[in-house]
Structure formats: structure tokens, C-alpha cells
Write a structure and sequence with these properties.
This protein is of the alpha/beta class. The protein is 29% helix and 25% strand. Strand 1 (58-62), helix 4 (68-75) and strand 2 form a beta-alpha-beta unit.
Length: 210
């Protein structure tokens, strides 16, 4: 991810000009994707512990990419289902979490192929901003939660030259008809999350339902 361009996300961003299967092999080279640096990994692990339920539960990771956040959630004791539109991403996620209580599916993050299964948390990072109808996606995701479940959204407005993304004010407005009070955490001022200083808007929104 760069300060002057778009975020490098997963296949679920509806970008027909990007071959996400081809990008899968290098996807984890971004510090906040591969979490290969111990400091970056600890930073995301700490944030995730504050966002996900304190007790072990079922977590749905939408737009999971290569499964780095899924792995952190699994290490914290959660059962993970990951969904990504890219078969290559899903293959790498399965390899990363081999032997763990985790399932990865190829499918659309906006309407994940999980049948009647419900979850204690739905985790979505850098996906909502590029969906054609984010309001509809949010309503659908909220319906996948058990009572008291959590919707965790990590988003932003990336870049200083030609910014793209979704401002926090718009996201919280979209959430208003869907769920209860949203808690916003500003993430731009924590360089450990990104592998360095950033100058754009990055944040997380956590909503606990019902």
C-alpha cells in the first residue's frame, strides 16, 4: 500500500482491470497484508483482540486475501470461515491455516456462500469501499450475525494525490439503519499497523448488534 495510490486489496474489490490470482503470489509483500514483520504482526494482533469477542467464537473473514487476519483470529481461539473471490488467494489462505479450525471458500464477499450459518463476528478489511452497493452489503452482513455479534470494518480513504476509499462519516451513516452505535478507532496514527508512517485516513468501525 502506498501513500499516493490505491490500497492493494483482495479480489473482492470488483476491479476488472486487476488479475488478483496473478497478484496473489506477491500479496503478502505489503507489510499489513503478510504481517511478516513481528512489530506489524503484534500491532494487528492487539487491535484484533479488541475488536473480536473475548471468548472463542465463529468469525467470518470477508475478502480474506491470503488469510493473515484469519490466522491471527485462529490463534486467538476463534473458528474461522474465510471468503475471497480469488481462487489463488483462497489456496494460499488454506495453506497458511493448514491444520487449524478454519475453512476457506471462493465466493463474493458481498454475498458470501455460507448458507444458513451465523457468526459471532464478521470481519471485513479494505473491501467495502469498492463494492457497488455498500449499503446493501452492510445489511446483508449484519444479517449473518448472531444476537450480540460484532461487525468489524477496517476502511479508509487512501492516497494524497488521487484519494480513493470511503470516509468514516459516510460509513457510519450507512450503518445507522442497520445496527446499533458504532465505535470508531482512528488507525492512521499507528505506524506499526502499516509498516511506516501514513498521511491518509485509516480507521476501524466496530458495531455490537442487539
Amino acid at each position: 500500500m502506498t501513500n499516493d495510490g490505491e490500497p492493494v486489496t483482495s479480489a473482492n474489490t470488483a476491479r476488472p482491470d486487476v488479475d488478483w490470482d496473478e497478484r496473489a503470489a506477491s500479496f503478502d509483500e505489503e507489510p499489513d497484508h503478510g504481517l511478516r514483520d513481528p512489530g506489524v504482526r503484534r500491532a494487528w494482533d492487539g487491535r484484533l483482540r479488541g475488536w473480536l469477542p473475548g471468548r472463542a467464537g465463529d468469525v467470518l473473514d470477508l475478502g480474506c486475501g491470503t488469510g493473515s487476519l484469519s490466522l491471527l483470529a485462529s490463534e486467538q481461539g476463534h473458528r474461522v470461515t474465510g471468503v475471497d473471490l480469488s481462487p489463488a488467494m483462497v489456496t494460499l489462505a488454506r495453506e497458511k491455516l493448514a491444520g487449524r479450525d478454519a475453512v476457506f471458500l471462493v465466493g463474493d464477499a458481498a454475498v458470501p456462500p455460507i448458507g444458513e450459518q451465523r457468526f459471532d463476528a464478521v470481519l471485513v478489511r479494505h473491501v467495502l469501499w469498492a463494492l457497488p452497493d455498500p449499503g446493501r452489503a452492510l445489511r446483508h452482513w449484519a444479517g449473518l450475525l448472531r444476537p450480540g455479534g460484532r461487525l468489524v470494518l477496517v476502511e479508509g480513504v487512501w492516497g494524497t494525490v488521487a484519494p480513493v476509499g470511503i470516509p468514516v462519516e459516510r460509513l457510519t451513516a450507512l450503518l445507522a439503519p442497520v445496527a446499533g452505535q458504532a465505535r470508531v478507532e482512528r488507525l492512521s496514527d499507528d505506524p506499526l499497523l502499516w509498516g511506516g508512517e501514513v498521511a491518509d485516513e485509516r480507521y476501524a468501525v466496530v458495531v455490537v448488534t442487539g
